[in-house]
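Predict structure. Chain length: 328.
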Amino acid sequence: ARELGNQGEIANILTGLGVVARSRRDWPQAEQSLKEAISLRVESGYSPAGEQVHLADLFMEVGRSSDALHVLDKAEIAAQAAGAREDLGEILRMRATLAQSAGDLNAAQRLAEKAVGELRRTNGRLPLTLSMAELSSVVTAQGDLKRAESLLGESSGPPIPEMTGAVELARAEFLLARGQFAEANEAARKSAAAFDKANLDVESAKALMAQADALEMSGRLDEARAACREAAQRATRTPNQLAAAFAALAEWRLAADSSAALPPALKARIASLRNPDLDFWAQYAVAVRAKHTQIANSRGLFHALATAAANRGYVTLSRRALALGEAP
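Prediction complete.
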């Protein structure tokens, strides 16, 4: 490719090929094309930050979080050197997403706030809206529903599937926290459909699990189980083990014949991922199963989860656990 002509133009072509390969779920080809594009940008003296953002996003999709952080470190240096505010905002948003996935809500909020602040100074409507949706998701988890509602009110733009999916997923999380389960189900359904159009399987799986949650809380268990099965199918289209584990956990929680104890294989799988967010939802699933099977200590399980979640800033989960622990 290097002998064909202008290196900047070739880098653009390679980036496009990487995006197409990703949409086909050809992860190795996508990675190779993006790395070649980055190399050409560097050799030609131009900032590789945009291509590095694409590569980090690819790594996040397939569950390679440490690789994504490593690439984002390089992208941040390149973006700062070039004064590329939109790239800097995207980098901060992606760091926030990784922090939230790792269970560090305080870091996620700080990074998402910075991303929104940076992107407000640009004309990038898509990255700004994605950052506001990310910040809404974080503050919803922290229990600041007034702030989440305000952010969602600002989160609008053209009907781009990725944007629609992100905003509707954040809206579903907010509505779940408010106890508006029918509305949450509809928002999650819209989110999953939009992410499907964008070929974003991990995000679609998240939306379907939010839909299953809303349906479960509405007492529509058969529909919730169907949504969980769809979530598992989406998750297994990628190598992302964390997404697959979340889906498997949700399927177990909702299965009609599940016992009150996590199956050993699933328990070992969750432990191996060492993810605080997943650990909390595993505790939640065990407490829910204990309640459904009328285990005597289910109330204690919910209260233990409520305390642990509150200590890590998961106020919304803590509130739900307390409410379910006290409910008949």
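Summary: The chain has a mean pLDDT of 94.
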